[in-house]
Design brief:
Order of helices and strands: HHHEHEHEEEE
Structural class: alpha+beta
Number of domains: 1
CATH class: Alpha Beta
Distance between the termini: 39 Å
CATH architecture: 2-Layer Sandwich
Number of helices: 5
Strand order of the largest sheet: 1-2-4-3-5-6
Number of strands: 6
Shape: globular
Oligomer: single chain
Length: 148
């Protein structure tokens, strides 16, 4: 199912882990999650793709509860609601800057270094917190710092 000119439902629910573990519910998201995925694509992903002018790869989108737990995701993860996606592009730093111009809820520079994140996490919800963070490891634990 096409959600926009450049994004399909399949790429937003795809998961090698779910396939390997037999989490069939991953491929049948509830209506609320589907509606949220549509809003995420329409308001954030497609506008970012149009502005970037190149493809954006979704490495993680919707996650059913079992998949989220298997991946070590937070119990409150917006991925579980279809409100979040992890993304990569030819320049993740440029992607991050382009996403800042969208009406995101949360935007995270995920790991990497000062020049390039390893990937970019973005979410969209009615909260519109405009929260910009950087994820990093400190003492073996993931911490989130406010973007300066």
């Amino acid at each position: 199912m096409r959600l926009s000119k450049n994004f399909t439902l399949d790429e937003l629910i795809r998961s090698d882990t779910a396939k390997k573990k037999g989490y069939v519910e991953q491929y049948n998201p509830p209506k609320e999650a589907l509606d949220n995925l549509r809003r995420l694509v329409e308001n954030v992903l497609q506008p970012a793709r149009d502005r970037l002018g190149e493809s954006i790869t979704v490495t993680s989108g919707y996650r059913c509860d079992r998949l989220n737990k298997a991946l070590g995701g937070a119990a409150s993860s917006q991925h579980r609601l279809g409100q979040a996606a992890d993304l990569v592009a030819s320049s993740n730093a440029k992607l991050f800057e382009v996403l800042r111009s969208t009406p995101f809820d949360q935007l995270i520079w995920e790991f990497g270094d000062a020049d390039q994140p390893a990937w970019v996490h973005v979410s969209y919800s009615e909260r519109h917190r405009r929260q910009v963070l950087r994820a990093m490891k400190e003492g073996g634990k993931t911490v989130y710092r406010k973007w300066a």
